[in-house]
Design goal:
homotetramer; 365 residues; five-stranded antiparallel sheet; 7 helices; 22% strand; globular; chorismate synthase activity (chains A, B, C, D); Chorismate_synthase_CS (chains A, B, C, D); EC 4.2.3.5 (chains A, B, C, D); Chorismate_synth_AroC_sf (chains A, B, C, D)
Amino acid sequence: MSHNTFGHLFRVTTWGESHGPALGCVIDGCPPGIRFTLAEIQAFMDKRKPGQSRFVTQRREEDLVKVLSGVLPEDDGETLVTTGTPISMLIENTDQRSKDYGEIATRYRPGHADYAYDIKYGIRDYRGGGRSSARETAARVAAGALARKVVPGVIVRAALVQIGKIKINRDNWDWEQVDQNPFFAPDAAIVPVWEEYLDGIRKAGSSVGAVIEVVAEGVPAGLGAPIYAKLDQDIASNLMSINAVKGVEIGNGFGAAEITGEENADEMRMGNDGTPIFLSNHAGGILGGISTGQPVIARFAVKPTSSILTERLSIDKDGNNVSVRTKGRHDPCVGIRAVPIGEAMVACTIADHFLRDRGQNGKVR
Amino acid sequence: MSHNTFGHLFRVTTWGESHGPALGCVIDGCPPGIRFTLAEIQAFMDKRKPGQSRFVTQRREEDLVKVLSGVLPEDDGETLVTTGTPISMLIENTDQRSKDYGEIATRYRPGHADYAYDIKYGIRDYRGGGRSSARETAARVAAGALARKVVPGVIVRAALVQIGKIKINRDNWDWEQVDQNPFFAPDAAIVPVWEEYLDGIRKAGSSVGAVIEVVAEGVPAGLGAPIYAKLDQDIASNLMSINAVKGVEIGNGFGAAEITGEENADEMRMGNDGTPIFLSNHAGGILGGISTGQPVIARFAVKPTSSILTERLSIDKDGNNVSVRTKGRHDPCVGIRAVPIGEAMVACTIADHFLRDRGQNGKVR
Amino acid sequence: MSHNTFGHLFRVTTWGESHGPALGCVIDGCPPGIRFTLAEIQAFMDKRKPGQSRFVTQRREEDLVKVLSGVLPEDDGETLVTTGTPISMLIENTDQRSKDYGEIATRYRPGHADYAYDIKYGIRDYRGGGRSSARETAARVAAGALARKVVPGVIVRAALVQIGKIKINRDNWDWEQVDQNPFFAPDAAIVPVWEEYLDGIRKAGSSVGAVIEVVAEGVPAGLGAPIYAKLDQDIASNLMSINAVKGVEIGNGFGAAEITGEENADEMRMGNDGTPIFLSNHAGGILGGISTGQPVIARFAVKPTSSILTERLSIDKDGNNVSVRTKGRHDPCVGIRAVPIGEAMVACTIADHFLRDRGQNGKVR
Amino acid sequence: MSHNTFGHLFRVTTWGESHGPALGCVIDGCPPGIRFTLAEIQAFMDKRKPGQSRFVTQRREEDLVKVLSGVLPEDDGETLVTTGTPISMLIENTDQRSKDYGEIATRYRPGHADYAYDIKYGIRDYRGGGRSSARETAARVAAGALARKVVPGVIVRAALVQIGKIKINRDNWDWEQVDQNPFFAPDAAIVPVWEEYLDGIRKAGSSVGAVIEVVAEGVPAGLGAPIYAKLDQDIASNLMSINAVKGVEIGNGFGAAEITGEENADEMRMGNDGTPIFLSNHAGGILGGISTGQPVIARFAVKPTSSILTERLSIDKDGNNVSVRTKGRHDPCVGIRAVPIGEAMVACTIADHFLRDRGQNGKVR
């Protein structure tokens, strides 16, 4: 398990479990001279923070980020400037209830990594999911907040587009809505529908999957490579590294399989200002692995959490047939909290490719 | 563009374009003592070879693999034994028709990488797609043939499960059928339907997308890691590195977003022989990034090729509005030839994780 | 500056400067099931700790290591067991005297990295050397302490063999002596000589270089690779990554250039127990990049610190000719404290190659 | 053995043995738009070519480089332009005399990698040294020839400065001399001395070591990083990856251990043209891991080859005590041919760090 690092020049290494004293990340390769404040980082952390509505886990943590290295403070007492050295970020774990996890210390939750961990490692930190706890993603969000600053002008946003079988109406898409509801829904009309549906899931102690869409605007044309190190390959890899993600697609994605070359072609015209205009964006902003300057669009599917109240058949560590139900705090739809995480992973990927193309020194100041 | 290498311990570097003298790969990290014959490699090459039916490009190449290093010949004159040193494989390009590519030297095909290449590199090998030619995948298939030998008992197979909107009937799935038809279809009943549909596409000079499913059986439990270096992450990354792939999913994939935790849970019972039995495989053989011993299942979507006979609006290198139609050889459904390629990429990924878990020396002999 | 990580499977990422709140490392790839105590780690930290004699910097820090992730505590309240997940170690900076560094904020110390930093980054943490402070090496020593546990039976020790032009008498070599004097000298007779010499250096506000020898016993035969990823190459790289190191050699090292093939050959005989015996060890335990089972021997040269009291000609940030003398705490011979650091780097290198050969899972428990 | 790749952005993967059909390399990450001719590459190959004097092995090969991918030919029929895709270079093996290697197929040459190979791999290509044959270095020289073109204005040269105990007189240093004698000696006066000495070694069937010095001028200031990814660390690593190298040093190297901080300091003054002048170069052009703009200076020690005519004690594959003498072609001083190899490795290292700093695209055209 030696690869808790992603990125080639903008490299992020995360560490930490749900029930240790803290978790965090080391960002290696951030160029020098980038200015940021803790408040800017914290704004993204707050989006991911649990306990903000009844539709996500009730674990409550402040998720305050400490920056331990790699920056010099400016005289205003708020601004930090990167020095080009590794940036260590730390987030304390403050709300740990180990007693909740008694039974699943020995019984494997069907659909959960419990069994796979024991097979691989022979030892398992069952408390709160251990390394695969959703808490690990706090470190990703912190890294993503900084990554955005590396690429001048880039805007990376995400929204929830599907819960269970219920999809948004794309004609209603309005980015303004995303922060106005507990689902990060870009479609105001879907909110009451999802509320009612998820209340049912929640009360049943059940869970359900979701689909998230990430859109990155202002990505310079020319990032990525034709095959291997494709920008879309690295986005797919980084999104797939998030817990519970089972599918990733770029632009039309699986929809591209269903259409003809005529339909899929994004036609081009020269704009009046001498820059090319694409008449559509089936490609999701990436052709042949390389960004075209159009918005980069990625979607990923999150499975329902396997921690549910309904009894399921399973085995225990000693090989006995048992049944398992997961008590304690539940996340009826873990996909909701994956929205800021998806944003962060795409932002990191773009920052990494930006540095590959432009170099690590002196480009951003 | 410095990452034409995939894998961490079983590392494959590919090189070559459609119109140079040759293409190939270097396999670094293959354990010593593995025995194989050129005929075994060639069997996989022949599956990928173009010109085998009217539904794929009519370019004809023998795709004979030469092994230039990393092996010792045994006395039988056929068997080669790996020595643990880099294995260089070379495939000559024999059927190059440069004259076919006149117009697209300057005009960007909509949906093709032409524009992105010029933006990034300022120079472009337009002949046959250059580096992003499907020919590059020959090197992957050669590497995959060897990768299978690294993991004792593993069987990696793939099949085409969808062309355009027409899906196979999964109840008809029969692996025996896959090599009996020009589509690698596991469903005999779909073959005449696809034939008729693709004949229409072909005659119209059009193209259409497809979905491929890869199934790996005999994968030892315990390969992969909880987050980052997840087996499914690396499979997704490697499949997404194939030309024209726009989506990847594991097990239920995007379908997992639509169901509840109860439905998605793969229940377990102890088998009579003391090994656990899973009652379903929604997870696609991977839980928490780690293989469980169940079949590993991945699917990927291939977009329709952008080389079509219908005129599309575009611009040229000098910024003029033009229209483009691609003459020359066509691939009505490039997804068909992606079947052996997907197999190869999954085989390489599994070999890589097998070595991470078991080490590079002395495990396979 | 995106490579503060060393190792391929046993990967160590360090972070932190002299004057931030803390420094530390993340160890990724440590196999599960390894038992250790903080006291075991601390024993190595204490060897590196400054302020222990008048011959090293008088900065005083406890250098207590906190382990923030990757372990489960056992019932004895002391033993920690690795789980296979990233191990984050943190060491607080407690003795920072920023006021000491006034003048060198703008004036470049000749022979120091000051000038190079400003040229590269345009921003520089001048406080205590910033990232290139010797404090960073505390994280390496912590990682090295754990690395030793990865390879059963390995013993990695180092000693100071030269200060300035004064070398030890190798006939006096006694490992027992190394911890009995402030120089890590293996030769008791050299101690008073070095004391007198270094007292002179110290009183003059001067500094002097040194040579350290690292010996690893119990290294299994077969680690490394013939060319590239040679065990000696990775040892050289990792030793050269230590501050102020200007040369590295293996076995006879530069001495090998002076002798003939007859002299340099390490002859072999079969031992009575059926294991081969080498009659000499000119190779330093590594032939063709691969360990032979003999002790692995490496040496490295540390230059004198450039922080000296004597005025030297230089320039300042604004391009003026100035002269510089460094006030504040001095290290008359930084090479002394490099002894435990060299040990740590060799231990990490061996652990990394051990895992490459044997795999990351299930080998050590 | 999965790391036959060096470099992070300018990545070179070599493959091939002495006795296969060919050897070569893949250069991945070379920026697009670099113009070169085969004749330019060949000039460096010819320097390394064996059989050019009685002081090196009598194996005769043309070492003609074929470029198989990654370039477009220009209209002059000579110039090749890089396209940014992987560049595959191939060199055929034409002079193989397998019959020479009979006895050493089973007997381990003392000081040679024979024993280590068998311990590690259990299989060994004994013919001509297999993978660790000096022939592998032909691929490095080819890569180095291209690397020089990546960094505008850089000049990388090397010279032999010591054979056995006989060193050149540095006061006589004249680069013009290096190509005027069979030793790459920069000191004309040493040539007859070395000739006489090496004639004795050669006639005795013996061998002797050597030291090579590499000097890179025109290296831009600011390449490298403070600790880890130090420019000197990567130079050391890459030089140590060459066969038979046992020591590496930068600038003063081991000499730095013998002097004081006052002596070692490279004082600075502002030049009349506003660029800083260093009054000495003890640091070898690198301070704190970062290039300063001064010449980069590295030295490495090559041990005597273990293939000698004198009988030495050893064991064989079956564990019997035997004696070994190596018949066939000999290299009395393999260090001589290491001169162009050292140049190539330093050139590749500098190109790699240049791209890390400046980015891979659009900098060199």
